[in-house]
Amino acid sequence: MRLEPLRRKHVRRCVEIERILFPGDSPWNAGAFHSELDAGGYYLVALTDDDEVSGYAGLATMGTPGDWETAVHTIGVLPQRQGEGIGTALLEALLERADQLDAPVFLEVRTDNDSAIRLYERHGFSRVGLRKRYYQPSGADAYTMTRPARQAQEVAR
């Protein structure tokens, strides 16, 4: 498995994976992925040795130099490839990018997604809020989680 920048040629497969992973909610369509790429988001794909997309992730950056904030907008891994470290590798690559900007990282995660919550907590995220009925149309709740900027982490140590 290797990580590469998400390109437009990967979008169709990412949309297919979204539909598999999030059937009860509003999976991203091709337009959403293209919009994120157009906005300059930092998006990656996890590719197999055969160049098949097995996962993807994206980080949005907001603010100005010296005052950046970032948000994990999506992470998805094919169900049959989960547990192989792909999600971890994708998240670590996003966090490395946030650390380069010395930016805090925010995200939302379903309150019933225990494996994702554990992954985020292992990487320094903590719960800071609850968004009732965040995911639609299912109405599932989401935790808002954050990880401080690298500089803040170093000061805390």
TrEMBL record:
The keyword Transferase applies. Residues 1-150 form the N-acetyltransferase domain. Signal peptide: none annotated. PROSITE patterns: GNAT. One of its GO terms (cellular component) is ribosome. Keywords: Acyltransferase, Cytoplasm, Ribonucleoprotein, Ribosomal protein, Transferase. Pfam families: Acetyltransf_1 (PF00583). One of its GO terms (molecular function) is N-acetyltransferase activity. The keyword Acyltransferase applies. PANTHER family: ACETYLTRANSFERASE (PTHR43420), ACETYLTRANSFERASE YPEA (PTHR43420:SF44). NCBIfam families: rimI. Belongs to the acetyltransferase family. RimI subfamily. This is Ribosomal protein S18-alanine N-acetyltransferase. It comes from Prauserella cavernicola. The lineage of its organism: Bacteria, Bacillati, Actinomycetota, Actinomycetes, Pseudonocardiales.
